[in-house]
Amino acid sequence: MDKLLIRGGNRLSGTLPISGAKNSALTLIPCALLTEEPLTLRNLPRLADIDGFQHLMGQFGVSVAIRGKRPEEFGRVVTFEASRLTSTVAPYDLVRKMRASILVLGPMLARAGEATVSLPGGCAIGNRPIDLHLKALEAMGAEIELAQGYVKAMAPDGGLPGGDFDFPVVSVGATENAVMAAALANGTTRLFNAAREPEIVDLCNLLVAMGAEIEGIGTSDLAIHGVKKLNGATYKVMADRIEAGSYACAAAITGGEVRLEGANANEMQATIHALQQIGIEVESDKAGISVAANDSLRATNLSTAPYPGLATDMQAQLMSLLCRADGTSVLKETIFENRYMHVPELNRMGADIETEGRTAIVKGVERLTGAEVMATDLRASMSLIIAALAATGETTVRRIYHLDRGYERLEEKLQLVGADIERVGDD
Ligand code: EPZ
Question: Is 123 a catalytic site residue?
Answer without folding.
Answer: yes
